[in-house]
Amino acid sequence: MAALEDPTEEALMFFGVTLSGLLRDHPDLIEVIAHDVAETPKLTEVMSWVMEDEAIDPSVWARIESLSEPSK
């Protein structure tokens, strides 16, 4: 979690690319990730770095997009 206190762009990109691969292969993880984002709003920034990938299920991609938007 230390990387989330003051993340560099490189750290955010690493986390985003890692999540892209995980969600491509394990789309059910989006529920766990959504819970984590709700608990730790700072993760919204990480979600904005997840790269769009045609292999990610469209419904999962829609969740990624919604999780990458700051709460109002």
Automatic annotation (TrEMBL):
This is Uncharacterized protein. It comes from Sulfuriferula multivorans.
